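Just curious. Protein, please.
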Amino acid sequence: MLNEALESKLGGEVVVKSTTVSGRIFVVERKVAWTVLTGPGARSFSTALIDAKLVSREDVEQVMAECRKSGGNFCETLVAWGLVPRETLRDLLCHHVTAQLETLFGLTEAQALFVPQPRSYASQLTFDLAELTADTPQPAVPQSQSPSGPPVLLEGEAMANVKQALEEAMKIEGAFAVCLADANSGMTLGSVGGNAAFNVEAAAAGNTEVMRAKLKTMKALGIKDRIEDMLITLGEQYHIIRPLSAREGLFLYIALHRANANLAMARFRMADVEKSIQL
């Protein structure tokens, strides 16, 4: 999946999720620019800098504050402020990214998704994959762990089309979060809305299990039909899951405030949104 990202003209990010660890690998101009891990034992690059006694915690906080204010790059600001020599910083960053890639490559039950996304990156501190993996064997995926279908890659017009469709869905009365998700991996291919109290990506991943369970039940009952949509009614919310008829494995997911939503109209509008998605 990372090789796919590195071959993309747009660049973007590879999202990796397992039961214990999740990570994001950012690719710019066919090079790895940054990695982020979350989970047990995850260690940030700023912590690595502090542990190496190259900067103080106060230095890091000041640099981060400046980057938030100016939109500057964290590493380039460290160099510009004379806190860390460029070559020293590059070596440490290379080591840090390599270690994180080793962790991701070592996951045995993980899902990966490439999300193409053009982004500006104001730094030359990027790495060829060979530079990061020269001593890191990349394990082959056992046949039993091969994905059930090809990875979904969205580029160019497809990305723009999905974004437009999701923005249209957000115009539905009562809507506060919507996404397009991959039922095979549980990952989102695009999302709009949500907030700190409602993580739409986590919600989509959870509802993947709902969709799988329903399909399994239909198979057990011998029901040879397709799911038009599924409705989950909460005390204060409606959640609608609508599989894409034109692309098996993908589904739209929308959350609405029940007090403001017209359920019949929402289902009707979601059918139109589904038809508008061209992949």
